[in-house]
Design a protein that fits this description.
- By secondary structure, the chain is mainly beta.
- The chain has two domains: about 190 residues, Beta Barrel (YmcC-like fold); about 100 residues, Macroglobulin (MG2) domain (Immunoglobulin-like, Sandwich), CATH 2.60.40.1930.
- The chain has two helices and 23 strands.
- The strands form four sheets. Strands 1, 2, 3, 4, 5, 6, 7, 8, 11, 12, 13, 14 and 15 form a 13-stranded antiparallel beta sheet that branches. A four-stranded antiparallel beta sheet has the order 16-21-18-17, with no helix packed on it. Strands 20-19-22-23 form a four-stranded antiparallel beta sheet, with no helix packed on it.
- A hairpin with a 2-residue loop joins strand 9 and strand 10.
- The longest helix is centred in the N-terminal third of the chain and has 18 residues.
Length: about 300
Amino acid sequence: MKKIIYCLFLLLISEFNIMFAWDSTAAKYMPLQVGNTWIYRGTYTAYMQSGRSYQIYKITGITDTLGHKYYRIESRIYMISGTLSSGVMQFSDFVRIDSVTMKFTKLWFYCNNFETSIDSLSSQISDSLKICPQEFYTASSYCYDTSAITIFGNTFPSKKYQEFFGPSYGTVYVKGIGIAYSGFGYQMNQSHDTLRGCIINGIVYGDTSILVGINQLSTEVPGNFELAQNYPNPFNPVTKIKFAISGTTVTQTFLSVFDALGREVSVLVNQQLQPGTYEADWDASAYPSGIYFYKLESGSFTETKKMVLIK
């Protein structure tokens, strides 16, 4: 009799694992891997205040806690204007995908079990999910659309959700990319964050130039515009590019990188700059060895130089 019960138990466990096995297709809607990075441009409006900003979210490691492996996310915010910055609610410090339910989950110490589900990546239209029922009794996530969308010049499958827990949130997940849009509205407060570019499993999508950033080395006004030779050169995988902006007013400036075929592969600078001396970094980790060209355009000034990436 004991053997029969034991066999039935093993059969039940086997059926359970079949029913709730890891869904690799669903997991692609939020690709979690160390090094993956997302860059958003966001706006936040509130009563008599507003702000525009860039937010960068990067998976920097894995942490074991509460019996699970969580991906650690670090964030940076760069203000464009105003005083208020938005942010992607789903990207807390620690996130994971539940291997049984395929729920995208984050640590959330307001919940009794110290984590809360955000959205179910395996949801179909009209599926709903309770969010932290111990704390927010009416909070839920609702999948309302699974049609494809076009992003970065290509069409991808997507899933769109509405989340309710006090504020009303909206989120769009794109297969192979992650969160393409996040927004919320509450009384007089609204925010919208749209994906500008990302690096997923080593592949670059969209505009990731904000990852580079620029440093102003001097505010002294140069006598002439100048584009210096990058250093080091040859390099692997990061090099520095120094340039000088002359004149008396702010100037729209572009610093772009092209491959040997003349195709633009990265935009390091695309903004208005005060006269001064600057330095930009280019991280070519995602690019193959070869000859590249970088071009500075500022007002009527244009200059191009060559550099060599050797891996």
